[in-house]
Amino acid sequence: AARIKRYVINPLGHKWTHHNITYRILKFPNTLNVDDTRKAISIAFTKWSDVSPLTFTEVTDGNTTADIAIGFYTYNHTDCWWSPLHPCFDGLNGELAHAFLPPRGEIHFDNHEFWILGRSRFSWKQGVWLNDLVQVAAHEIGHALGLWHSRDPTALMHPNATNTGQRSVAQDDVWGIQRLYGCLDKKRVCDPWARLGFCERRRSFMRKNCPRRCDLCLQPLEAVATPTPPPANVKLKLVPRGKVVGFRCGSRNPRSAPKVSWYKDGEQILASIPGYIVVKDRDLRIIANEFNEGVYTCRVHRRGDAVSANSWAIRLKPEQASNS
Ligand SMILES: [Zn+2]
Ligand SMILES: [Zn+2]
Q1: Per the annotation, does 191 bind a ligand?
Q2: 166: CA distance to ligand 1 center in Å?
Q3: Ligand that lies nearest to the alpha carbon of residue 135, given by its number in the listed order
Q4: Ligand 1 ion: nearby residues, β-carbon < 5 Å
Q5: What is the pLDDT of residue 151?
Q6: Which one-letter DSSP state was computed for residue 61?
Q7: Average of pLDDT values for 60-80?
Q8: Does domain 20-179 bear CATH number 1.10.1660.10?
Q9: If residue 171 lies in a helix (H) or strand (E), which one and from where to where?
Q10: Counting ligands in written order, which one lies closest to the CA of residue 150?
Q11: CATH fold of 235-316
C-alpha cells in the first residue's frame, strides 16, 4: 500500500526565506541550568538540520537579532491567544509550550514545568513530571519552521508526540519539512555519481543519498498525492475577501450517506485547518483570502469508484479603489 502523507503545511504557506537560521534564548528556565538548556535546544535543532537544507546557529551577542526567539515564561503571558498552535499555559502539567509560525517564529516554554535534559519521567521524590526539553523543543521548532500538526501518530509533529515520547523526526516530518525547504544530499560525492549516470541506473540508492542532485526530492509524495484534474463542470465564484464560503457535495437526497473526498487544486484535503478550511463529511467551508483561492473539488465514491464530482473555482472579488 502506498504511504499516505499526513503532515500539514501551514495554510498561509509561511516559511523562512533563507536557510541559515539563527536563534536566541532570551529567558532561561528555573529548573535547568544554562549549559544544559543550550545543549537541549541545540540537539533539538539538529534533528531538523539533519533532514533539511536548514542550518541553525545560536546568537548570544546582544546586538544581533535572531530569527527564532526562545524563552521560558509563566502564565502571566497571554500572547498564546494569537498562536493557534497549543493553547495558553496552565501552570504545572498540561500545556508545555507553544510556538508561532514564521516570520514571527517565537517559541515559548511554560516555566512552571520542570525541564530536564533526558527522557521525560515522573519524579517520585519531587512528585512532578520532569519534561524532556529536547523532545518538546523539537516539536515546537517544527511549528516555528512552518509545520502544523500531523495526523501520523508516529510523527514528531503529531499533537500527542509529547505524551507518547516520540523523540525523533519520522518520515512524515521529513516530507513536511522538505516540502517547505527542499531536500538534502547526505553524501558529498553526489556530483561525480550523477555524472556516472547513477540518477538513472541506481535510482533508489540516489534517492536515499543524493535526492537533490537527481531531482528526486518529492518522489515519495508524488506517488500518493497525484494531482486530480478538476472535472469539466467548474462553477466560478467571485467572493469578497473574508467571506465564509460553503460547499456541499453530492445529490440532495442520497439514500445512503456517500463517501466523499475533497481536493484543493488537485491535492487531497486530509484534515480541517481551524480558521481556514473546515471539512465535515459532505460539507466544506473556507474563509476567502489570497491563500484559499483555487479550485475545490469533491468526489463521491461508491464501492471504491468515483461516481460523480463537482468543482468550484474560488476567486477574490477585486477590491474597489475608493477614489471618490
Ligand atoms: Zn507565548
Ligand atoms: Zn504542536
Answers
A1: no
A2: 23
A3: 2
A4: 79-80, 108
A5: 82
A6: S
A7: 82
A8: no
A9: helix 171-181
A10: 2
A11: Immunoglobulin-like (2.60.40)
Could you say which of 58, 95, 140, 319 is catalytic? 140
User: Mean pLDDT, to the nearest integer, of 212-240?
Assistant: 66
Residue 293 annotated to the active site: no
**Cell digits for 198?**
547513477
Render 28-89 in DSSP notation, one character per residue: --SSS-HHHHHHHHHHHHHHHHTTSS-EEEE--STTS--SEEEEEE-SS--GGGG-SSS---
Domain coordinates in residue numbering, the chain: 20-179, 183-210, 235-316
Ligand 2 centroid–CA 139 distance in Å is: 6
The residue whose grid cell reads 461508491 is: 302
State which amino acid sits at residue 167. Answer: R
CA of 157 to the centre of ligand 2 (A): 6
161 alpha carbon – ligand 1 mean position (Å): 20
**Residue 229 contacts residue 266 (beta carbons within 8 Å):** yes
Q: For 243-288, what is each residue's pLDDT tens digit?
A: 888 888 876 555 666 788 888 777 777 767 666 678 888 888 888 8
CA distances from 18 to 175, 194, 275 (A): 19, 27, 28
Rounded Cα–Cα distance for residues 109 and 116 (Å): 13
> Which one has a higher pLDDT value, 141 or 13?
141
Q: Which ligand is nearest to the CA of 162?
A: 2
Count of all residues that appear for the chain in the document:
324
Compute φ and ψ for 314, nearest 5 degrees.
-105, 125
